[in-house]
Design goal:
39% strand; Tetrahydropterin Synthase, Chain A; three-stranded antiparallel beta sheet; alpha+beta; elongated; seven-stranded mixed beta sheet
Length: 185
């Protein structure tokens, strides 16, 4: 039974009270109900195309690096705002993998016309997010989001960061993650 007076088996050290130690990697992570988007998509695989459907995606982001002179890795509020903004870009849209070699894609008259074999879709341009990816899988969405997040962090001169990772959950219990190293290493 747990007690507030219970001593843990972990050794008590001065680590929590010591000055910042050089060379240690730290990380922060943001996730939660405001880091979500709902979107429609289909994926192609093995010469097939799954039916058009949607997900209520959840996104989390993790940054690794060294502390700044002010003992920050990065501001949580700013990170949450950046990730929420990226989610908002994708919310209530059709995710079009514009580099998919199996799709015939035409953009004209304010619409995207998308074809796969005998299937045809015509979707208003305003409802499409044409992403520079080859398939709209959770794996590729995580990679695209991680790249966009890394760009935003570089623009904010977050030179202390060494890694940016994003996880995209497309349904409870199934997610994909992508991590990239940044120039700080």
């Amino acid at each position: 039974m747990y007690s507030a007076n219970h001593e843990t088996s972990f050794p008590r050290t001065a680590a929590l009270h010591c000055p910042p130690c050089q060379g240690l990697m730290r990380h922060i992570e943001v996730y939660g109900p405001h880091l979500r988007f709902s979107a429609a998509h289909f994926t192609t695989f093995g010469g097939e195309c799954e039916p058009l459907h949607g997900h209520n995606y959840a996104v989390s982001a993790r940054l690794e690096g060294e502390l700044t002179p002010d003992s920050w890795l990065f501001d949580f509020v700013t990170l949450r705002r950046i990730v929420a903004s990226l989610c908002e870009e994708l919310d209530h849209a059709f995710l079009l993998p514009s580099r998919n070699p199996h799709l015939a894609i035409e953009r004209s008259d304010g619409h995207y016309r998308i074809a796969f074999a005998d299937r045809r879709y015509v979707i208003p341009e305003a409802e499409v997010r044409a992403l520079p990816i080859d398939n709209s899988t959770a794996e590729r969405l995580a990679e695209w989001l991680a790249g966009r997040l890394a760009d935003e962090l570089r623009a904010r001169r977050a030179a202390n960061l060494t890694s940016v990772a994003v996880t995209v959950e497309e349904a409870p219990g199934q997610s994909a993650s992508y991590a990239l190293t940044t120039a700080a290493q």
